[in-house]
Amino acid sequence: MIFVGCDVHVRNTCFYATDFDGKRLAHGRVANTADELRRFCERLMSAVGGEVQPVRFVLESTTNSRPVQRQLQQAAAAAGFDPVAADVLDARKLRVIAESVAKCDAIDTRVLNQLSRANLQLPVCYMPDDEEFALREHLRARGDLVRMRTMLKNRVHALLHRRGILTPEQGLFSQDGRKFLDQLQLDDAGRTIAKHYLTALDLFDELIADSDRDLRQVMHRPRWAKPAALLQTMPGIGLITALTILAELGDLKRFKSRSAVANYAGLVPVIRDSNSKHYSGGITHRGSSHLRHVLAEAAWTAVKRVPLYQALFARIAERRGKQVAIVAVARRMLEDSVRMLWKQEAFRFVPAKIDVGPRSSNSVPKRVPERVGHGLPSAKASATASAKVASIPNGRPRVESSVPAAEAAGAEFASSVAG
């Protein structure tokens, strides 16, 4: 078997190839193009006398490791190697390279080669398939457009603020707000700049609307239809959040528990325990920041409607503040979402309309009366929502809200307790 250590860069990759005994077969720097990689694999095949052998490439995780991995697999297969393995290793867990005193490409490739020959369980990264990758790219691009639109709105507010103009309470970008902007008497520079900002805002609105339409079409595909509809039975989770959860998590079979999913998303606290020293900090922030962002936004809606999440939020906010509390709710929502997907069950907790007030408020949400169910499972609500999801034909999802059935079940539960 041939082992190849690869140090991947933007334009080229440094290779070091040996056999199982460590005898060097080929080394050098090759451009990251299909032709150059194919020539390197052919040269490697010549070094082993044209004998068909298995080959294993090992490379560190980078932003372009996915295309390089695929090009290596195709080039090695075309050169005659069989089978071909290309593993992308988590660079943060390869401390033997990161903390090396003498660090250069030649040494790094040798270290990777030695690790590939060792009988060790290496930290291999999960590589999404083409459909997952495309959905991730689409969702992240939409998020970029939303952030740029928000930046432009802030620029318009700053433009008026520098001129001492107070904005209307209903907002600047509603219909009334746009009429207010059109009727403003600004200086020449302010009028020109405001026109440019508003024109760009209109363009971003169109692009985001187009992106939303495309994502609705993606949800019609059989792979995403029922899982996305199932997730949307949870209060706070809509189309974008559901698709983001599915795209960023990928294959759920690779997670052994709910806590493993939270750890992958970076929603678990940093813990440092050694002998008598104990330290617990904030969340690790590892994994997808896009996933954490949409979960935090969904959590603000969920705490208004789900008694269990509201109680969790109130308990932690009283001790640690609302920001820490909403992160805890986001983690619980992610864990519950994965459980729903594992068991193919709709959301089971009785929604309740609970006003937690604006985010800037210092008040703690009021607790739910004990007779409202307090987040207890409702078999009737679960059965109703599950039936709606099960009735969705592949490729044509139609998500209906299960809130009325759930609220009716909660009222039935409350009346039975009162009786």
Structure in words:
This protein is an alpha/beta fold. It has 3 domains: 2-117, YqgF/RNase H-like domain (Nucleotidyltransferase, domain 5), CATH 3.30.420; 130-219; 222-418, no CATH class. It has 15 helices and 7 strands. The strands form 2 sheets. Strands 3-2-1-4-5 form a 5-stranded mixed beta sheet. A hairpin with a 3-residue loop joins strand 1 and strand 2 (12-18). The longest helix is centred in the middle third of the chain and has 32 residues, at 130-161. The model is unreliable at 351-357, 359-379 and 395-419 (pLDDT under 50).
Determine the number of helices (DSSP H or I, runs of at least 4 residues). 15
Q: Could you give the distance between the termini?
A: 74 Å
Count of beta strands:
7
Q: Mean pLDDT, nearest integer?
A: 84
**Number of structural domains:** 3
Radius of gyration: 27 Å
Helix and strand composition category: alpha/beta
Biggest β-sheet: count, sense, barrel? 5 strands, mixed
Order of helices and strands: EEEHEHEHHHHHHHHEEHHHHH
Detail the poorly predicted runs: 351-357, 359-379, 395-419
